[in-house]
Amino acid sequence: ERLPFLASRVVGFEGSDFLGIEAHVDEVWGSDRYLMSLLHRFKPESAHKVKFICLGGHPDFGLNPKDYDSREFHWDFSHLMYLTGVRGQKFHAIMQAGNSMALASFDMEQRHHVLSHSRWGLNLHQNSFPCLSPQRFMIFASYGLPIVTDYCADPYPFSVFQDGLIHWNPRKSSVMNKEIRDEAIVRNYDLITGEMSFKAEVERMVKC
């Protein structure tokens, strides 16, 4: 029996096969609308198998953003990334501009500590492809962190800050506006723990 293939991010397609799994699945679930549009444009014969799903979270995971101003910040950024390619170069440029970076923290307890004491969540692309990172965005949103990111063609459904890296200095960007920041982090948290939680999104897709 064939089952839907759930993916937080889908990249790369070549030849006549759709991601190499076209013959083996009924559906592909993806979490980036820009990527979905490319697949519909360049692989129209397979596009009917592609459906958008938000990679949501759970209210028991993370921290409520309403306590953001009372947190003790040890670092400017939490990033949760491998520093490969151009991403590593941008990472070091941001540090040289005077911003502190937490460890990548792939251990669960360490990651919780880092996310609880970081001012912002950082997303950097490994290449020039402007898609979002659904899992990273969901984790940042779950902890009520403002998402400072490289340019994303369509960051839906997240509210993000794409001007924070123009000078490698988010302190010169809109993330420093408390009203805008608070609106973004509360909206992101409420969205991925409520209307677009992991459970709600999977149930919606199964009913389609």
Task: Give an overview in words.
The protein is of the alpha/beta class and 208 residues long. Helices cover 31% and strands 10% of the residues. It contains 6 helices and 6 strands. Strands 1-2-3 form a 3-stranded parallel β-sheet, covered by helices on one side. Strands 4-5-6 form a 3-stranded parallel β-sheet, with helices on one face. Helix 4 (134-142) links the parallel strand 5 and strand 6 (147-149). It is globular and about 50 Å long.
Could you write a compact summary of the structure shown?
The chain has 208 residues and is of the alpha/beta class. It has six helices and six strands.
- Order of helical and strand elements: EEHEEHHEHEHH
Low-confidence stretches: 1-18
- Beta-strand content bin: 5-15%
Structural class: alpha/beta
Distance between the termini: 18 Å
Biggest beta sheet summary: 3 strands, parallel
- From the alpha carbons, calculate the radius of gyration and give it in angstroms: 18 Å
The averaged pLDDT comes out at 86
Looking across the biggest beta sheet, what order are the strands in?
A: 1-2-3
Q: How many DSSP helices? A: 6
Number of strands: 6
* Proportion in helices: 25-40%
Shape type: globular
Topology:
Layout: E1 5-6, E2 28-30, H1 33-42, E3 50-52, E4 75-78, H2 86-96, H3 108-116, E5 118-123, H4 134-142, E6 147-149, H5 178-193, H6 198-207
Parallel strand pairs: 1-2, 2-3, 4-5, 5-6
Main features:
208 residues; 6 helices; 31% helix; globular; disordered N terminus
